[in-house]
Design goal:
86 residues, mainly alpha
Length: 86
């Protein structure tokens, strides 16, 4: 597991690669979005993680991001509203 500062470094590097990449290599971009999603997830920024996973899934439907998105949904669905909103 990465430290918070390392996760932020990963996000910054991924953002740089996304901005400076060519659209032709969809699988490489999918991997970058997937890695960025993992870094956001480790920081607890679930919305940004889910967005990154979805972007990766669109570029590579057979990649690991599709499963990561499904796993994140299961985690977020586990939230017990009664415990936090009595």
């Amino acid at each position: 597991m990465l430290a918070r500062s390392e996760s932020r470094d990963v996000i910054a590097h991924c953002d740089y690669l996304i901005e400076n990449s060519k659209e032709a290599d969809k699988k490489l971009l999918a991997q970058i979005y997937y890695l960025r999603g993992n870094a956001y997830r480790q920081l607890g920024e679930w919305g940004k993680a889910m967005s990154s996973y979805l972007e990766a899934s669109e570029r590579d439907p057979d990649g690991p991001a599709k499963q990561a998105y499904a796993n994140a949904l299961q985690i977020l669905d586990f939230y017990n509203h009664d415990l936090y909103n009595p």
